[in-house]
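Board notes (copied after class):
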Amino acid sequence: LGLITLLLGLDTPLSVVAAIFHVINHAIFKASLFMAAGIVDHECGTRDMRRVNGMFRVMPISATLAIVAAAAMAGVPLLNGFLSKEMFFAETISHAQFVSLAWLLPWFATLAGMLAVAYSSRFIHDVFFNGEPVNLPRQPHEPPRWMRAPSELLVVVCVLVGIFPNWTVGPWLAAAAGAALPQGLPDYRLALWHGFNQPLLMSTLALLGGVAIYALRRPIYAWHAQLPRVHARTAFERWSRACTGGAHRLVGLLDNVSLQRYCALLLCFVVGLGGWAFFARPGVALRPSAHPADAAAVLALLVLLVAALGATLVHRERLLAIILVSVVGLVVTLTFARLSAPDLALTQLAVETATIILLLLVLRYLPARSRPQSSAPRLLRDVVLALLAGGGLALVTLQMLSQPAASLADFYLQNALPGGGGTNVVNVILVDFRGFDTLGEITVLAMVALAAQALLDRLVLPVPAHDADGRRWARDRQPLFLSMLMRPLLPVALLVSVYLFLRGHNAPGGGFVAGLVTAVALSLQYLANGIAFAQPRLPQQPTRWLAGGLFLTTGVGLASWVFARPFLTSAHGHLRLPLIGEVEIASAMIFDLGVYLVVVTVVVSLLSGIGSLSQRAATPGGSA
């Protein structure tokens, strides 16, 4: 069985054929051997090999049948086991993997064959020869004719398959192997003789070595008797305890509830693996950009560098760090706009706005400045890891930019309209060509919203009475101008959101951007009028809205199965309506609507959770 598993693990067409061939042969000779063991037990009253000896004299026919079946198991020529084991030996020689250790697999296979011959020899010698029987409960004799008949039939099959493999087992082997190999059967030949070759040499060594192992059994037994007496169960328990203790120590070393250590370990792994992959391949000459940078690009790059460096240096000043990070996001937005990516620019701008609002709301419950907790060695470690990770990404980016430009852009540009029914290639990619990626992303967003809601619902924090400069928070006073401004602007913002949603398939926009615009409008409404005004007007029960959005995106994908199309296959066409005329419709709009609902609900659930936290903090008796 181990040899069969190894053959399947070699994972070549011929190894699969050899494994199935050996399964067939194994079933034949092992079934005969089981029946022989049953006959011996029935006639002698015991199966103890220390007492069952010399059975050849009292039951020669049954003994001959068992000897032939055991010889087939050992791989003796002219029997079926010899053919499948020779195929096994041939596969271990021709296997192309692990080239540096190519010699090890044939030797391992030969050793396995020796052991098979050794235990087959022990069975034959100890049961049917080896002196006289010892205190048997019964007087053994040949069994009844029909008890022996199945074993006789199987032994005859062992001989016939060993001598005439093509017309006996050939059709059965082809049918079984063909079912396991959908790509088709490889070329192989079932024959008793393949000439003098390496597999035949390995078979000969296995036969001679197995007989030698059994002949030297007494010195082997004596050596084994000198070994320390350890019960297998005791050894297993000791090994299990050692593995468990080592695992606990390793987890204690790595998992110390420190986010800094987790990030450091992750970056060490990424830097190590990325460095090995980068320097293991042939180097690529770095080519300068063919497009010279103008003054605006240089200025944007300088602003980006200053903002990123400033956010790193003043990261303990939370508000200032958030402002500098938002500057980085704004420069990235301008970069997308300059590189003719309006969809990405719109999305980045909306994401930055929504994120900054949420972060500023959370800052109310945090100290204005974080306390330094890093020691000098840890700070040095973080600086080194940051330089290595940043430098590695810079090298990878430069090398990618130095490669010849080859991408799927032409395919998307050519197939966006005929295949997806839209001229906005970015949106068609998101909701059609790579809709499964988008489905995964909004599923992750929904999981984040549920986790944040569960955390905020169980959290009670005191709201500080004064800000960082000692000024008292005005809890009950809302900004009048912002409150007056947002009430008429909210329907306008929602109208813009609907406009961006409807035009997204053919112009910059789409469900993701529209959802972010709606979320920003609702966030500003909350900032302007407070949670008491905004919360009743926000979508309630966010879990249902999240489920509805995921249901729409998944449902439109499953609907394609009704038409015998792959999951998330979209359809598009034109519909003529009275008084309106021809209208273009696409099933991807339903998918986009699901994305819109999930994005809006994620931000709204976070707003609602933060607002509820503020209300609980203001309640008398609230505690941290």
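Comment from the instructor: Confidence is low (pLDDT under 50) at residues 620-624. The longest helix spans residues 13-44.
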